[in-house]
Amino acid sequence: MRPISFEITKSAGPLSRAGVLYTPHGAIETPAFVAVATKANVKGVPSTAFQALGVQGIIANTYHLYLSGLEAIEKAGGVGKFMAFSGPTMTDSGGFQVFSLGVGFGKKISKFLPEENPFLRRDERHSSEKGSPPPAVWDEDLATSHGKLAIIDEEGVSFTSHLDGTLHRFTPERSVEIQHQLGADIIFAFDECTAPDAEYDYQKEAMDRTHRWAERSLKAHRQNVQKNNEQGIYGIVQGGRYADLRVQSAKEIAGMDFDGFGIGGSFSKQDILGILDKVNNELPKEKPRHLLGIGEPEDIFIGVAAGCDTFDCVLPTRNGRTGGIYTRGGKIQIPNAEYREDFLPLDKGCGCPVCQTYTRAYVHHLFRTKELLGPVLASQHNLYFLTNLAKQIRNALLDGTFEKFRDDFLAKYRLTK
RNA sequence: GCGUCGGUGGCGGAGCGGUCAAUCGCACUUGGCUGUAAACCAAGCGCCCUUGUGGCUACGUAGGUUCGAAUCCUACCCGGCGCA
């Protein structure tokens, strides 16, 4: 019996479904939004608040926890115990950092291909030489301040710590080994997350490499008999914004004996639904699918419609920390002047503990005065907003009212913008 | 009263003859954030024309020197400090 299992409670559409994901530390009712706890902490949100905020599970990061020291976490009994959370846990493999500390370092690049894409145009203009861009940037200017952060080869990735410049190396085997030490219920294969503007040839090269790494990750995991009984492993589909690569990737990853699947990398915003449809069509129905790092309310609806079960995203906590508040009428900037004397809750009618207690004017004041409590309250509200949205979506799927719920929600959500 | 230092945009504080509507910080206004390098980043911030190698008014006040002054000179006003 595998440590991870998935049960489809109701298939609601061609792909969408409500289900239950069982782990050694309890179940997650899906669709679900999993909180990001990169460094064994959901920024601004103590684990004691998880239940009230509807947080069913968390995802921590291999790269960050490796750099900050694994021994204490291992001795504590794993990330979950370490952070005093008894529910289901996941760890990301560190593959995303190949991107964010590699080609993405020093740039403001989102996971989505920007509509205006200066990089592409620049490439097209100068591209007499066709072929792959370098897999990672050795930028001498950055090197002087931060070191050379990520370089990829067939075996793995060499990293320079963003904290102290020390050199480290991850391979699929090493990532899995670290994830064993971290002890989360679900671990992820080591992959390469590519930049949204990566050209086709490079994207394919990275995808093929990710497939090889997936096999090695899987093998490394299955070989460890004890951990294999305690932790499940997800393979990650790549392929960037190219539908044909995505399909190929999904087929290949689906052909491996993973317990579930992560869908990673970057997307073209316009085509995301079509791409996810195609990916999930290739993945075995009975296994769970996690859409990595995606997270705006609009995107969750798209993911669910396309058959994704779990989601994670830094946005609720990052937006919260920086003053962005999710409301059913759209996102608002709570530090803005208009909320100085607004004595309504952050989101009127919201059931979260923050909205039960505090006003916009107060949270506005906390941000203006740079009180720590401002980002804390905002993060907690936002987290509730996303977990609750997923929960409402789940209920709608069970009731067969998903489309109506989605259309009603989005109509209001987009009203103000 | 004498001496001395100083008065710059909401505040602090640069500038000390042209390239100054004036460095910078704070404050203020707004925008962004999608497997967290992020309690962060960006833009704006005298007035006017929605445009610009645009116009106007500005560096205590009033004059003056100069092709040209926030920058030099004179007087005055105001403030700090020292001595009476």
Automatic annotation (TrEMBL):
Keyword Transit peptide applies: no
UniProt entry keywords in alphabetical sequence: Glycosyltransferase, Metal-binding, Queuosine biosynthesis, Transferase, tRNA processing, Zinc
GO biological process: tRNA queuosine(34) biosynthetic process
Lineage top rank: taxon: Bacteria
Residues that bind substrate: D92, S93, G94, G95, F96, D191, Q238, G265
Ranges where the tRNA-guanine(15) transglycosylase-like domain occurs: 16-102, 146-413
Family: Belongs to the queuine tRNA-ribosyltransferase family.
Protein name, entry field: Queuine tRNA-ribosyltransferase
Gene: tgt
